[in-house]
Amino acid sequence: MASDPSSKSEIPESIRDLMKSSIEQAKQAFDTFVTSSEKAWESVESSSQAASGSMKSLNDKIAEITRENADANFNLALKLAEAKDMPKALELQNNHARKQMETFSKQLEEIRDLTTDIIKESTAHMTDDTEAEAETDGEEDESGDEEAEDGDEAQPTSSFRRW
Questions:
Q1: What is the pLDDT of residues 71-95, one digit of tens each?
Q2: Is residue 127 a part of any domain in this protein?
Q3: Between 58 and which of 29, 81, 86, 114 could a Cys-Cys bridge form, CB atoms 3.0 to 4.6 Å apart?
């Protein structure tokens, strides 16, 4: 009564069907969550005048990456649920891990580039603001000198403007 070793590692079809159903339900729940989150974020962005183009691009990219990675993982889960034996499941898992590492590397580069853009944009705004403040401070000092009488020193209108 020797049994076939390959039959021990086989996953019953009823279990695979149950796994597929659970995965599909989880994917639908995730898609609903992501859609709601994206709508909420869009309303925040549209109401915020301070949102920069670069920051919006970064947020959009993060949402895109999240969706791509989730889809890849749900697809893997469905493939694993269809696998009839453990060697096939391990092969699927290894291929997925290899592909995701390549994808992760590319995604990280994209995020790095967008973050660099945000830093450049922020630095440019800070430089513009500093130059504008310097010009304003110079005008205040000139007008303050004219108003000073009898040796009194002119006081800036706001001590915070110098910061």
A1: 999 999 999 999 989 899 999 999 9
A2: yes
A3: 114
Bridge partners (DSSP) listed for residue 10 = 85
Residue 154 lies in a domain: no
Measured torsion, CA atoms of residues 27, 30, 34, 35, in degrees rounded to the nearest 10: 70
Inside any domain, residue 37? yes
Q: By residue range, what is the domain housing residue 69?
A: 14-41+53-146
> What is the DSSP code string of 77-91?
HHHHHH-SBHHHHHH
Instruction: Give how many domains the chain has, as a whole number.
Output: 1
Please indicate whether residue 112 or residue 50 has the higher confidence score (pLDDT): 112
pLDDT, one tens digit per residue, over 102-114 is 999 999 999 999 9
Question: Which residues contact residue 121 at a Cβ distance below 8 angstroms, ignoring those fewer than 6 apart?
Answer: 52, 53, 54
| Cα–Cα distance measured from residue 105 to residue 101, given in angstroms and rounded to the nearest whole number | 6
Contacting residues for 110 by C-beta, under 8 A, at least 6 apart:
61, 65
Quote the CA–CA distance of 76 and 20 in Å, as a whole number: 11
Buried b / exposed e over 123-140, threshold 16 CB at 10 Å, is: eeeeeeeeeeeeeeeeeb
Instruction: Tell me, yes or no, whether 162 lies in a domain.
Output: no
